[in-house]
Amino acid sequence: MTTAHRSDALTGPARDLAREVLIHGPITRSELGRRLGLSPATLTRLSKPLLDEGLLVDAPETIERSIGRPVRPLDVSVDSQRFIGVKLTAGEVFAVSTDLRANLGAECVIELSGHEPSQVVADIVRATVEVGGMGGVTAIGVTVGGQVGRSRWVERAPFLGWKGVDLGGLLHDALGVPVVVENDVVALTAAEHWFGIAKGIEDFAVLTIGAGVGYGLVIHDRPVVNSDTGLGLGGHFPLDPTGPLCAEGHRGCSTAMLSIPSMTASARVGLARDVGYTELLDLADAGDPVAAQVVGSAARSLGRLIAATANLAMVQTIVLSGEGVGLADRQLPRILEASRADRDPDAVPVRILVDRSGFTAWARGAAAVAIQASFA
Amino acid sequence: MTTAHRSDALTGPARDLAREVLIHGPITRSELGRRLGLSPATLTRLSKPLLDEGLLVDAPETIERSIGRPVRPLDVSVDSQRFIGVKLTAGEVFAVSTDLRANLGAECVIELSGHEPSQVVADIVRATVEVGGMGGVTAIGVTVGGQVGRSRWVERAPFLGWKGVDLGGLLHDALGVPVVVENDVVALTAAEHWFGIAKGIEDFAVLTIGAGVGYGLVIHDRPVVNSDTGLGLGGHFPLDPTGPLCAEGHRGCSTAMLSIPSMTASARVGLARDVGYTELLDLADAGDPVAAQVVGSAARSLGRLIAATANLAMVQTIVLSGEGVGLADRQLPRILEASRADRDPDAVPVRILVDRSGFTAWARGAAAVAIQASFA
DNA sequence: CTACGTTATTTCCACTATAGAAATAACACA
DNA sequence: TGTGTTATTTCTATAGTGGAAATAACGTAG
């Protein structure tokens, strides 16, 4: 791992070029020229300094045999920089070390010693040491479930009891590297967009299924955010007027129908015992009537949510991510059936992409926003 | 009206500047510089030729008294060009003549003599004569309810029985001016975005209420369109499981609950007589139980649709347009109440903008896409 | 084994768009 | 009438751009 010292921040067209190579993997100069609308000459001029400083490298030429001089695609030197991604939950700090494409290296989980900002900061610092320390780290991203402003300020994070905490400032003081704080769903969406299963797709929505239900949106190749982002509006979408209640009193909303705790709690009522999520899905597959009912209505709800999203957000691709995507794998036909029912038969079928990386997707998202910040 | 002959099409930064002035009305050079990221010197250089050719003019200085040299805002010469907008329905051609900001001049309605492309083209040509002929017309926009490709090709227009008709080509041959064909809802959305009630707003959705229910979306200052645009996906959003059926068999979808024909048909069942839309709204206000039921559930459905749109499309502004917006004016409290119920109490209230121009909004939309095409 | 065709990439160079600085313009107010 | 203040234009050096030609790196045909 070479530590490339970036003398000055990327700017203008050079930044665009680096971003394009970062996202679209090994890519020839001619293809880059087409995408960015630049001439070959300009491409050479712009890529030269980036090659010199080690950010870009000549990729091994592809095996495609054709006439003429072989192409020499450009690629980013993924190991030239390290990033750290941290996902905060109510009880734990989950940290990962990644390369320039948010590929995971070391991971660690640390119990939160408390909810005081100073305690959380200390825990995060400990976690960064666990995943390899700050050596060669370009930036660190931290995500929370809640509203975040200006990439550093936690406006509101109910699960920590925070309101107006300058987490970015505190961490920057403690670590001395650039810190990016972001909402967890926004960050996960960004990771899918640049590095994940939706890489290169310009319009899509993300649904996360886990402790809650999250909703993220990318339109025109840019994430959609507004002042309500972080409130989880897409997570309480009404889906089933006969469903159970969520913690905020919505009957049959997406969280009530789809979140892991809600599903297992529903199952517990009928089964009269505790079940885990995977066990619940297994039971449903095995024909247990209670489990089949809970899982089946969750699947149908997910289908309806997918259709509603495709219709109103005008996307044709939906990414499913989080710990609870097992539902999608096990119940895909039912989901598709419910989705089709709420969609015009002449419309193209919604493309459903499932990110099966589970909980690590959250920390990867945190790293992704740190990476993005250094290319913006 | 001076006919400015545009020697060559606008290009690059000059086009951006003209577009900015067109949309943001009289605007000072300094404000333009801020918005476009250009220096005052560049502003002068770019605006010079546009002033010379008559597209831009120095606006009368505003009355704001302040220190220093008064600003001399730039504005477009709205009368320097004419455009024609045509909205096709199953039975009529509705045509308007507009200026550069899609302000209406002459209007006319002509009965369609038939659904054959040649007949429709002939009727459109007659309509253009009615609204003043082709003198000084820069471009003409035509909209249909259906799917349109490449701004000229009608892929699918069920109300005319068309599939794959090169309406743009036929009209261009007949009229000799640039022709833009577009989906009616997309065009109406574009008109609200550039010239209408949502002028300058970067993220909003449009709901049209009329013979059907239409749905348009603008995100990141750009319309959202995809291959399904024109199918009316937002127009059949499920809202009330106990509602009536729409023509496509959806129970309680937005068209079934909100469209004018569906509402009056529902009322007819209970009232045992025909009622007009306005009369129905009047009856509801007067306390008639049948009308109150139909109108009340329509209002609640609209509220739910507004909330769903705001949550999933992540917009905070919703524009209501079309002939049926009387519902919004009469029943606003009920709409807002239903909308709030499906939205997080901590979220900002959805801003609802009502375009009361009624049916003419459709033809204005057609003109708007013609105008936009000459600035793209 | 060499010359040639083909395509990718780089080098060279003229040109254009840009912004900074200075100049000028247009007011209010003293 | 002069001065302060802000808006706009003019002048000019410069950075960024793309076209054309040169060079590079192959495969292939002779």
Automatic annotation (TrEMBL), chains A, B:
One Pfam family, short name: ROK
Family according to the record: Belongs to the ROK (NagC/XylR) family.
Official protein name in the record: ROK family transcriptional regulator
